[in-house]
Amino acid sequence: MEHLRQLLEQIDGHGYKAYKRLEGRYDFDHFSLNIDHVQGDPFARPSRISIQVQAERHGLPSAYWKTRIRQTALEDFLGRALNSAIRKHVKGQRGTGRSGDIEISTSGQQVLLRNAVLIGEQQLEARLLFALPGSGRTILGQEAAAMFFNELPQLVQEGLEWTGRDLQQIRRHIEQVEDQDALRKQLDTLDAVAFVANGSLLPRASGIDDRPLTDGIPFQTPPQLERSVQLPNRGTLSGMAIPCGVTLIVGGGFHGKSTLLQALELGIYDHIPGDGRELVVTSPTAVKIRAEDHRAIHAVDISPFIGTLPGNRKTECFSTDNASGSTSQAANIIEALECGCNCLLIDEDTSATNFMIRDQRMQQLVPDHQEPITPLLHRVHELYEREGVSTIIVTGGSGDYLAVADTVIMLDNYLISDVTCKARRLAGPAPVAAVTRSLRPTQLRKINLQTGPRQGQREAKILVREQRLLEYGRKRIDLSKVEQLIDAGQTETIGRLLAWCQQHDPGQSQGLTACLQQTLEEVKKEGLDILLPWKSGHLAMPRLYELAAAANRLRQQG
Question: Which pLDDT score is estimated for 454?
């Protein structure tokens, strides 16, 4: 520590590149500091540091990370605790650019597997971005010393050292996440694809604020759908189990239909205590499906939904760089099935109308032989009966789906009721589709994941421009419509995973999906660190579907 102090005194007022002399390891009183990488100037991405606290100092019982889910929950809590300490103690702006900033990557309302905080038997490590202060290109050594010797020890003490402190808040966080994981694992025994606990608070503060609405109406299950389960920490829990099959969510506009569906979309993730959706869980392979104009499609068999196109264009191996609403929604379903999806989540507001329905009057006006699209309405129940894939659909304007629904739930001012019996009385006969081959794809697709460096660069860079905009070498992959991708750390990890696949299995010997799945399994086993040649703390684990979605949207031209 004293050596670091001396170095800062020596380089104070020198050119910014003299900060490079700081790289290395320093022992403080209660922790060790590694300055892993020093930024080139005050406007560049901040320097990377890591802090190690030995087990006898952090004071956290090994029982708190004895399982993978507990470890993820504990690491998530510690990252949030450190972030809270940063907001409290870090002065911030100390010069040019981002000088003085200290950051740690954390999640929003969801709990993700990250590499920002890592705990093991011997030590706890936290990885931060540390913007070394400068005035223009001149080092501000005294300001840097204040960051290292005043602020950093406070962050460690409040965020990472827990000896002699009350651990109740940590235990609550871990047990809450553990209960969500256990609840999700019970869905199969409930013959359900989702569960919403009584008392859950689904409405959000706003469209850009994912925190709970303070005066929102708590969820209450209709008696017909209420089930009870046992959780390892909470004990008995009651709520609505959405059964397998075809489920419709109906009701008037602004009464909570989409709010419920959005909660189910994010039910694939665990949530922090106080979110309101802590006990809303969905099958981990559930996928939100929507229309996505202009996306790229690579050799996808969309023939179960769209037959021969004008010009005798076949759809068994369909490719385009500019998909329509209907072809994109068909491809999205087939790609989800490739990834083992067992539940589709669909909102009619973000769907292609001609893909969803084709009413009797339109059939009379446009004969079947002129229409290549077989609407989802005609195949949605077959999808469950033949392939075991359930569907949850939000609809407010298409009564035709009543004829194919197994369960119909209605929302009225955020209050829910089971109207299945009434819907069956109103429904006409179910539409009959011509028998076709399996909806689940059987062909092994391959996609070229190679993309070289931009002009003037030595290697292909992987950058996240926005939360869902990935720069992958010379290409940009637009993931803005992949709605269950929630974190920029996931987006960068996706880019790294694609590059890993290209490096280790460029021929995709068992097909794209198997290649991506094997890569994910390797990372889960070895850790996110294997994806980078340097130490970093900003990666977060995605699912197979979101990873495949990026590969499927990688344009081969341009």
Answer: 65
CB 217 within 8 A of CB 203: yes
Q: How many helices (H) and strands (E) does the chain have?
A: 15, 27
The token pair at 23 is 């790289």
The predicted structure's pLDDT at residue 429? 81
By the 10 Å C-beta count (0-12 exposed, 13-18 middle, 19+ buried), 396 is classed as middle
**Cβ contacts of 400-405, under 8 Å, gap ≥ 24:** 400/357, 400/359, 400/431, 401/246, 401/248, 401/357, 401/377, 402/248, 402/426, 402/427, 403/427, 403/428, 403/429, 403/430, 403/431, 404/246, 404/377, 404/380, 404/430, 404/431, 405/246, 405/247, 405/248
- Using a 10 angstrom Cβ sphere, with 0-12 exposed, 13-18 middle and 19 or more buried, the burial of residue 31 is buried
Which class for 528: exposed (0-12), middle (13-18), buried (19 or more C-beta within 10 A)?
A: buried
Query: What secondary structure letter does DSSP report for 458?
Result: S
Smallest CA-to-CA distance from 304 within 98, 442, 155, 461 is with 442
Distance CA 411, CA 496 (A): 42
Question: DSSP character for 250?
Answer: E
Q: Where are the domains of the chain?
A: 2-165, 287-426, 462-552
Residue 379 CA, chain-centre distance (Å), reads: 29
Q: What is the pLDDT of residue 333?
A: 97
State whether the Cα torsion 347-352-356-359 is positive or negative. Answer: positive
CB 253 within 8 A of CB 411: no
Given the structure tokens 């900033």, which residue do they identify? Answer: 101
> CA torsion angle for 312, 318, 321, 327 (degrees, to 10)?
90
Give first-to-last CA distance, the chain, whole Å.
52
Mean pLDDT in order along the chain per 10 residues (558 residues): 96 96 96 97 94 95 96 98 96 89 96 98 96 95 96 97 95 98 98 98 94 94 95 97 97 91 98 97 98 95 87 88 95 96 97 85 65 88 94 90 95 93 88 66 87 69 92 93 97 96 92 96 96 95 98 83
> Rounded to an integer, what distance in angstroms lies between the CA atom of residue 353 and that of residue 333?
15
Asked if residues 158 and 169 have their Cβ atoms less than 8 Å apart, the reply is no
The continuous run of DSSP H or E covering 258 comes out as helix 257-265
Give the tokens for residue 124: 């706890």
Query: With a threshold of 0.85, does the pTM exceed it?
Result: yes
Contacts of 371 (CB under 8 A, 6+ apart): 358, 363
C-alpha distances (whole Å) from 519 to each of 460, 461, 484, 542 are 19, 20, 20, 12
Predicted local confidence at residue 439, as pLDDT: 80
Helix (H, G, I), strand (E, B) or coil at 433: coil
- How many CA atoms within 13 Å lie on the side-chain side of 233? 15
Closest by CA position to 30, among listed 49, 8, 46, 52: 52
> CA Rg, the chain, in Å?
26
What's the pLDDT score for residue 455?
62
Nearest alpha carbon to residue 358 among 377, 344, 372, 341: 377
